[in-house]
Amino acid sequence: MKTFLFSTSPLDTAALQRDMRDVTCGGFAAFEGWVRNHNEGLDVTRLEYEAFAELAEKEGARIVDEAIARFGVTRAACVHRVGSLALGDVAVWVGVSAAHRDEAFRACRYIIDEVKHRVPIWKKEHYVNGDSGWVNCERCAMPAAHTHEHDHAHGHAHPQVHTPDYSRQIALREVGMEGQARLRGASVLVVGAGGLGVPVLQYLAGAGVGRLGIVDADRLEPSNLHRQTWYALADCGREKSTLAAERVRALNPEVRVESHTLRLDDSNAERLAAGHDLILDCSDNFATKFLLNDLALRLRKPVLFASVYQYEGQLQLVRGDDATACLRCVWPEATRDGLVGNCAEAGVLGPVPGVFGSLQALEALKLLLGLPGLAADEMLIFDLISLHTQRLRARRAADCDAHRRAGAAVAAPAPVELEVRFASLTEAQAAGYTFIDVRDARERADEPLPSAAIHLPMSKLLIEAATLDAGMRYLLVCATGKRSAAAASLLRSQGFSECRSLQGGLKGLKATA
Ligand SMILES: [Zn+2]
């Protein structure tokens, strides 16, 4: 049986499920995508799907095969409707049978996400007002494809399906395959999809950061375009968060992107920040900046701030810990909005936010890759008229209100330190740790661990993390303690709250022996 199919008639999901039955499997997960009655504020009456069938079937089958290999599931299949669909119809069905439920869920999720991003399928929505429009045409990614009057005649040949290629950054010694895996495992929330957010999103998506969240409440205006050159004049009037998400998908379909059309406030900030490793402040107002500052301290999550004003700007990393400065340490009298103008009132040259957004993306990548960069206790100020740069010390103020409030809030569950020192592996074992050796095969052959260990090179870590028990006390080990620390922080972000890294690595053990 084909693992990826198109169907012109309504799907018999009961029959599809019967086909997936397997007595060797303990778990079955299915996903159904339904035709709903609204999209982006418009009332939808029915849908049409059109596919570039031959190419789409090949790519669809490839995705199902990838899911089977990647998650080790027993069976997987996906059926997609084409033609005319009514409200409530099942538009796409994914089923996965596996030995255990976790793989079944994950493979199911993988298939639906990849199908949405990679398979050339187009959707035409018919609206209550008699209008219709092609949507989700991520593959075309032409600005005109998103306007309602665009005639989406599929006479134009779709080029061969390309896949993202990170070879030019993997070639950097500091990045390599391990760095690429770290980026793929990373998740960044970008607040603001304007002058700063545009370069930030372009570079993070291009670099293959695995998941991007976009928050922006505004619609695109013609006056934005001199600095937000990712968008097109024809896009004016559309929500920037939606536009930015479309651009990200067109640039790199491997990125999981979520867009939120809303203004960040106390009621939603914590929920939006959840699950992201890093937050980038690309907003243009102080209310948002201070809200993010306080959130950084409360969640102990790093926020990288950028601000521009006319011809200059500044960059500051707030790590969210007790020891380093936050915005309120530096600006105790929180600058009220209006005191310093934003771009709308003060004016700005287009490349100025472009430079700072690029710097912000660069610092974000350095942070995710564990490269040295902007310290948490300094501020970079760059005047683009004189090209004069300054790095100012940002001191942690002893009487900082935000720090005091956050200290009280997080006093109870102190997070387990990421790194731990032991005199020997025997001592670590006695302390109840199970070892995970993240070195590659050659290093292990040269210097095997004396005790039992799970072998999990960095490149496999994220994929294989699913097979590990998040409640276990794992001690990650490498030669010097660097990679293991990176791996441990990666696992922490996946819910492994007890895992730690052997400080100094195996070299450190030898030095103390
Ligand atoms: Zn502070």
Defining traits:
Oxidized Rhodanese, domain 1; alpha/beta; Aldehyde Oxidoreductase, domain 3; binds zinc ion; 3 domains; Rossmann fold; five-stranded antiparallel sheet; 22 strands; globular; 513 residues
Question: How would you sum up this structure, described in words?
Answer:
This protein is of the alpha/beta class. The chain has 3 domains: 4-147, Molybdopterin biosynthesis MoaE subunit (Aldehyde Oxidoreductase, domain 3, Alpha-Beta Complex); 167-408, NAD(P)-binding Rossmann-like Domain (Rossmann fold, 3-Layer(aba) Sandwich), CATH 3.40.50; 413-512, Rhodanese-like domain (Oxidized Rhodanese, domain 1). 34% of the residues lie in helices and 23% in strands. It has 18 helices and 22 strands. An 8-stranded mixed beta sheet has the order 12-11-10-13-14-15-16-17, with helices on both faces. Strands 3, 4, 6, 8 and 9 form a 5-stranded antiparallel beta sheet that branches. A 5-stranded parallel beta sheet has the order 18-22-21-19-20, with helices on one face. Helix 5 packs parallel to helix 16 (458-464), helix 6 (197-207) runs parallel beside helix 7 (240-251) and helix 9 packs parallel to helix 13 (401-410). The longest helix has 19 residues, at 53-71. Residues 136-158 have low confidence and may be disordered. The structure holds zinc ion. The site of zinc ion has 7 residues, from helix 10 and helix 13.
